Fold this sequence. Notes:
The complex is a heterodimer.
Chain A: H1 10-33, H2 40-56, E1 59-60, E2 67-68, H3 73-80, H4 82-100, H5 108-133, H6 138-167, H7 174-206, H8 208-225, H9 230-255, H10 260-268, H11 273-290, H12 304-340
Antiparallel strand pairs in A: 1-2
Chain B: H1 2-14, H2 21-24, H3 27-42, H4 49-52, H5 57-65, H6 70-80, H7 82-94, E1 98-102, E2 105-108, H8 109-134, H9 137-146, H10 151-181, E3 188-189, H11 190-217, H12 235-253
Antiparallel strand pairs in B: 1-2
Amino acid sequence: MHMADALLTPAVGGAMAAVSVAAIAYSAAKIKKEDFTNSKVPLMAVSGAMVFAAQMINFTIPGTGSSGHIGGGILLAALLGPWAGLLALAAVLIIQCLCFADGGLLALGCNIFNMGVIPCLFIYPLLFRPIFSRTPSPKRSSAASIVSVIIALQLGAFAVVSETAASGIVQLPFSAFLLLMQPIHLAIGIVEGIVTAAILVFVHNARPEILTAAAAYGKTQAAADGKPRSARKVILVFAVIAAACGIGLSLLASSYPDGLEWSIAGVTGAPELAAQGAAADALAAIQERFSFMPDYDFAAGDGTGTSVASIVGAILVFAAAGGAALLIRFAKKSKRAKAQS
Amino acid sequence: MIANRVHDLYVLENLSDKDTPIHRLHPGVKILATFVFIIVTVSFNRYDVLGVVPYFLYPTLVMSLAEIPYKLLLSRFLIALPFCAFAGVTNLLLDRQTAFVLGGAAVSFGLLSLITILLRAYLCVMAVFLLIATTPFTSLTRELRRFHVPAVFILLIEMIYRYIGVLVDEASSMSIAYKLRSVDSKGIAMKHMGSFVGQLAIRSMDRGERIYAAMMCRGYSQPTHGHPSHSGPSIADICVCAVLIAAFLLLRVFPVLHML
Lengths: 341, 260
C-alpha cells in the first residue's frame, strides 16, 4: 500500500502532505499537553519499532499457501491511543521511506494519511473505541479490531486509488483500479483483522490495563480540555481541510496541467496568488513554446526530425553522466594511489 | 533472514561517515536540494521522457563524488521497483495510440509513459538513498528542527530508528526458536501470530518502561535537542544549494533536449 513518488504529481503529493503535517502537528501538540516527563515517548518509540519488526514477520495463511504481514495502524492506536499511535506510525513510515524506499519522499503525505491518519484518527475513535470501551472483554476487543482493520484498509485502498487517479500518471481507469484494489484489500483486511484481534486478545489477557489505558487516554484528555466531543471536532476539521486542499489544488492543477507552478510556489513559498498567476502564465507560455509535445498531440505532427536530435541528445546526457562518473572515480583512485606511494 | 533486514536498514547509514565534498555539505542543503529535485522531476507530464533525462546527471555525479557503491543502491532500487513497473506496464497496455514513428517503428504513448515512470522512479529513489548515504541520521533529524518539526516527533524518529535494530533482533530470535520447535513450517502459522506478536508487544512495552527508567536515571527531563546542535550552513553551502536548485528549476523551465 506504500505509494511511490513516480506515480504522483506535486499537487496531489503536496496537498496530502499538508493534511498529514497538520495531523502530526496536532497530535504532537496533544502529546505535549500531557506531561513531557511521563514514560510515553520511550513507550511510543519501542512500540513503533515493534510494529516495524512485526511487519517483517511473514505468517502463513491457512488454505491458501500464501503469506501475509500486518500493517499495524489499529494495533498501534490500540496500544498507545490515537495521537501517540499516529506519531509512532508516521515515524515508522518516514524511516521506511528513507531507508528502504518503501514509498517516496513526496508520497510521504499520502502514505501517512492512508496508513496512519485513517486508522488512528478516523477509525480508532469512531469505530474501535465505541465497540471496545464499554466493558472491555476479549470478544469486544476482537470484534473491534476486526471491524476497524477491515474498514481502515478499505478506506486506505480507496484513498490510494483516489490519489493515484487525481495524479493521472497511471492510466488505469478509476473504476477498474478501484475494482482491483478493494477486493484485494478486503481479503488482506480480514486476515490482518483476525491477526490484530488475536494480538490484542493476548495483550488483553496478559495486561488488560494497557488497552484500557490507551482507550481512556484520548477520552480523559478530551474531558480535561472540557471539550467532550473533541475527537469528532478534529475529524470534522481534518475533513474540511482535506476537502479544501483537494478542491483548491485540483483546480490549480487542472488550470496548469502539470503542477509546475505548484512546485515553484512550494520552493519560493510565494503566497501572492495573483503574482503567481502572472508568473505562471509566462512560464506556461515558455513551456508551450519549447514543449516537445504541445498538448500531448503530435501524432500527425512533423516532429520526427526534432525527436531524432533529441534522442541523440538524451544518449549524450547518459554518456556524459557515465563519463563524468568514470572520470571522478579515476581521479579519486589515482589521488589515493599517489597518497599511498 | 529477518536479521538481514537489520543489516539492510543500517547499511546506507554506514556509508555516511566518509569524508567527501558531498558528505561535508551541510545537511540542510542536502535536504532542500533533494526535495526540490524530487518535486521538479515529478512535475513533468507523463509522456515527457526527454525532459526528465538531463536530471540523470545529478544522482550519477553525486554518487561518484560521494564514493557510494552504485551496485548497492541499484539493488536497493530494484527491490522498490515492482509496483511502479506494474503501473507502467498497465499504461503500456492501455495507451496504444502511436505517439510518433521512429526509424520505421511506431512508439506508443503507453511506451513513453512507461519509460517516464521508470525514469522518475529511479531518480526519486536514488535522490533519497543518496541523502541517507551521505548524511548521518542524527544530523538529518536534528536538521529537521530547523524546519520546525516538533521536538517530540524528532525524538521519536531517532528512538524508533535505533530500537528497530534491537526489536528486530528480538523478533528474529523468537522466530528462530519457533522454527526449531515446529518441524516443516515455512513461516509462523497464522493461528500463532496472536501470541507471537502479542508476546513481542508486551516485551516491548516492558522494555519501554525500562528505557524510561534508564533515561530518568540519567537526568532526562525534556527532549534535549530543541535546536540543531551544529552550526548553520556556511556561505559555500548556501552557494552550492542555490546553484543546485537553480539548475533543477532551469532545466525544468528550459528543457534542453526539447530545444534540439
